[in-house]
Each structure stands twice: as structure tokens, then as C-alpha cells.
Design goal:
It holds the Pfam family Peripla_BP_6. It comes from Methyloligella halotolerans. Keywords: Amino-acid transport, Signal, Transport. By secondary structure, the chain is an alpha/beta fold. The chain has two domains: about 210 residues, Response regulator (Rossmann fold); about 120 residues, Response regulator (Rossmann fold), CATH 3.40.50.2300. The protein has twelve helices and twelve strands. The protein has a five-stranded parallel β-sheet. A four-stranded parallel β-sheet has the order 7-6-8-9, with helices on one face. Helix 6 links the parallel strand 3 and strand 4. The N terminus is likely disordered.
């Protein structure tokens, strides 16, 4: 019998012999990263003769005779020809925008377009399986450029799928071009209610929520919280007045009460001076005192001139909601639910910054087109428009439910995030606000309230 020491020695030798046989059968060991440079000459001797490779096919063609190579090339060409191609035009203008409130916020000059680029990437990943390819054409003019002329240039080739990063007046000018009559224009920038009401256009679909939708989303939550008395304070910009009008409509719709409607009169242009905070601190109590008994300050300050300074500085210690404070938005960089983190990461990888609302609406516009194309297989602009406006159409957008377009004004139905600071507080529509068809139709103008009359001639 073997001693304990001899049994151990025999076992080690036995295992060593097995390992040696395994390595011999397995071939050479893999080369480590640090040995790659020294191993390269040896591997080069093992590469196939380049003269045996079909041009453009690499090592895959090794061993094929000329006939097989020709057949493979013909199959690839046929597959490429059979692929359905879609051009999506991003038509925009570099409007002057308010500077960031503080130096802690980056100056963003590529809002929207980065989201569209992410959308193209996402849609093409699906298109590879369905034989479809989507291409983004970027047509963006400077602030003093002629976007109508650019639109005419784009439309020379016929009907187009257009993502419009345009303000209301320019959007209508483009939509009213005779050349644009058969095109599909997706509004990703302007929330003006008039674009969904009397100034609606049949060739225009709205991805971004309207002011009425935003106000209703916020109003529902305030009524749910039993905060029905609102002190409305607004700026002097046209968009400030638009949101204020939507707020008045929401109050009437849901039983809220605007206890006072006040225009902010002070100049906050010196906020970055050494004494800026002192000036702001003295202004805000004066601007908000004497408003009576109210639950929240509802601010309409789309230019970001004063609204942020109302927080913690008002005469009465009340919450701030509206364009600052608790904000009704289509997207927020704190939102990660329903897979939303994937979009946040994609924009960050693409643009090296956080996603903003216009990135989301531009991304969703691309996905809306892509969904219609992938599901239907249609290629013409008219057919894709008909698909997007059909009752069966649905598009996903990280909101936990499928979205589609309203037939009476072409607004995309969608939940609205109520974001405050570094978190999303809630999502509207709120529980208890009912509708016979879509709960999201409690946000914005319902069909019976619509003043839109499409001219399809």
C-alpha cells in the first residue's frame, strides 16, 4: 500500500499528465493583450493569401470558386436593392434662447437634433431585421436664416417626412407651402394651443404637449391635493400669456380658482452681479405680497427670467408650480421609469450631456415614423400618414402605455410628467379624472372642445 505522502505524489502526477494531454489536444494557448505585438508576426504567416479573397468580402470568401463568389455578391446586391429606404428631414432654426440661469447649467446648442439621432439609431436596429433603412437629413438654418427657403429646397424632391423644430409662425409658413401639402410635418417644439385649434393644419402632427395639456396635468394634481386656490404670476413674453390662458381654462374645467392674476414687473437682469441675490431677495416678497388667501403660486415664465427665484423667497411660504417649481413636462432628466433610463443613457452617450424635453420629442417623432413604417411596410408619405392617424396605430415612448394621435387636431395623446427639482413627483392624468375612451384625453382639448377644422383640399 502507498503511504499518505506517496498517494499525494501519485495524485499530483496523475492530474499533471491529464492536463498535459488536454493542452496538447486543445492547440496553442490564447495570446494575452501584452503579448499581442510580439505574436503578430507569427499570426501573419497564418493569414490566407489575399489573392484568394473576394474584394470587399474579406476572409469569408476564402475557399469559394469564382462562380460562388459571383452568386454571393449578386445575392448581397439584390438584398440591398430590396431594402426599403426612408428619408426623415430634421428642419430647424437656431432661435435665440434664454441663457442658463446659473453657470452650473451648461449652454446647450443641440437640443432636439441629438434626440433625433438617437431615434434613427434605435429605428435602424429594428430595420435591419425588416429590410428597412432610415436616414436623417439635417436642415437647420441660423437665427437669421430663411427656413421657408430651406423647406422649399427640401421639398424639391416631392413629399417628405419632416421633423419641425420650429416656432409657431415659421411652422405655419412651412406647412402652408403648396409643396408641403402632401408631406407629414411633426411639431416637436411649439406648445401653442392655436396650432391645435384654429390654426391647425392637416399635414401637421404634434408630438410636444400643448399648453392646455400641461396646465390640465398640473391642475389635476393640485385638485387631487386639495390645493384649488392659485395665485397666477406671469411674465411679459407671448408664451407666458399663452400658458396663463391655458391655466385659466384649467381652473374653470376642474374647479380651481385663480385668486389673482399678476404680471411680474421687476427687472431681474442684474441677477449675476455681486449684489444680485440681495436684489432678488428684496424683489420677490414685494412681487408676491397682498395676493389674498391662496394655496400655490402658479408661475408662467417661459423665458426663465424670474420664476426660479420665487422658490423660498415669496411673501407667503407657499409651493411654486408652473414653468418653475413643479413643472408639467414631456420629459425630465430625472425620469427613469418604464425603461426610460435607456433613453437617458443613449442621449448622454451621443451628446455627452443629459437629455432635455426637445430631445425626447424629436426622438419620439422619429419613432412615430419608424413604428408606422415597420408595422405596415408602407413607403409612401401619404400611406405612412394614414397609418399614423389610424385607430390601430400605437407608439411606445417609455411612459407605460402606448400612444396615438387625436383625430380632431393631430395631437399625440400622452401622459405628462410633473417634475420637481431632482425627482419626478407624479404622472398625469391623475386617478379619478375619467374619460369614456382615453384617460389621456382629459389633458388638453377634447373633441367636443375642438375648434380645429382641417382643410384637406
Amino acid at each position: 500500500m502507498l503511504s499518505s505522502y506517496n498517494r499525494k505524489t501519485f495524485g499530483i502526477a496523475k492530474h499533471g499528465l491529464c492536463l498535459a494531454i488536454f493542452l496538447a489536444l486543445s492547440g496553442p494557448a490564447p495570446v494575452s493583450a501584452q503579448d499581442q505585438d510580439t505574436a503578430a508576426p507569427a499570426r501573419a504567416n497564418q493569414l490566407p493569401d489575399p489573392s484568394t479573397l473576394q474584394k470587399g468580402k474579406g476572409i469569408e470568401a476564402e475557399g469559394m470558386d469564382p462562380k460562388q463568389q459571383a452568386e454571393k455578391a449578386a445575392e448581397a446586391k439584390k438584398a440591398k436593392q430590396a431594402e426599403k429606404n426612408y428619408e426623415i428631414v430634421y428642419l430647424g432654426k437656431k432661435y435665440a434662447e434664454p441663457p442658463p440661469l446659473t453657470i452650473a447649467e451648461p449652454i446647450i446648442t443641440d437640443k432636439g437634433i441629438q434626440g433625433a439621432r438617437v431615434g434613427i439609431d434605435d429605428t435602424n436596429r429594428t430595420g435591419r431585421f425588416t429590410g428597412q433603412h432610415f436616414e436623417l437629413t439635417e436642415a437647420i438654418v441660423p437665427n437669421d436664416g430663411d427656413v421657408v427657403a430651406k423647406a422649399k429646397e427640401v421639398l424639391k424632391g416631392g413629399d417628405k417626412l419632416i421633423i419641425a423644430d420650429l416656432e409657431a409662425d415659421d411652422l405655419l409658413k412651412v406647412a402652408d407651402l403648396p409643396e408641403a401639402k402632401g408631406s407629414v410635418i411633426l411639431n416637436v417644439r411649439d406648445s401653442a394651443d392655436r396650432l391645435r385649434q384654429k390654426d391647425c393644419r392637416f399635414n401637421t402632427l404634434h408630438i410636444i404637449p400643448s399648453w392646455a395639456m400641461r396646465a390640465d396635468a398640473l391642475g389635476q394634481y393640485l385638485i387631487l391635493k386639495q390645493w384649488p386656490r392659485w395665485f397666477l404670476i406671469k411674465g411679459k413674453a407671448p408664451e407666458d400669456e399663452q400658458f396663463a390662458k391655458a391655466t385659466e381654462r384649467t381652473a374653470k374645467r376642474y374647479g380651481g380658482k385663480i385668486v389673482e392674476d399678476r404680471v411680474y414687473q421687476f427687472d431681474t437682469g442684474s441677477r449675476r452681479l455681486d449684489s444680485g441675490h440681495q436684489q432678488v431677495q428684496s424683489q420677490m416678497p414685494i412681487a408676491t405680497q397682498g395676493a389674498g388667501n391662496y394655496d400655490v403660486i402658479w408661475v408662467s415664465d417661459t423665458q426663465d427670467g424670474f420664476g426660479e427665484y420665487l422658490l423660498f423667497r415669496s411673501y407667503d411660504p407657499k409651493p411654486v408650480v408652473g414653468t418653475q417649481g413643479l413643472r408639467p413636462v414631456a420629459w425630465d432628466d430625472a425620469y427613469t421609469e418604464y425603461g426610460g433610463m435607456a433613453f437617458q443613457r443613449a442621449v448622454n452617450d451621443k451628446a455627452d450631456r443629459n437629455a432635455v424635453e426637445r430631445d425626447y420629442t424629436a426622438w419620439l417623432a422619429v419613432r412615430a415614423i419608424g413604428e408606422a413604417a415597420v408595422r405596415s411596410g408602407k413607403t409612401s408619405v401619404k400611406d405612412l400618414r394614414d397609418v399614423m392617424l389610424s385607430d390601430d396605430y400605437k407608439v411606445a415612448g417609455y411612459k407605460g402605455e402606448a400612444m396615438n394621435f387625436r383625430s380632431w387636431n393631430h395631437q399625440l395623446r400622452q401622459p405628462i410628467l410633473l417634475a420637481g427639482g431632482r425627482t419626478v413627483v407624479t404622472i398625469s392624468p391623475q386617478e379619478g379624472f375619467l374619460h369614456p375612451k382615453y384617460l389621456t384625453d382629459t389633458l388638453g382639448y377634447d373633441e367636443r372642445e375642438s375648434l380645429c377644422e382641417f382643410d384637406q383640399n
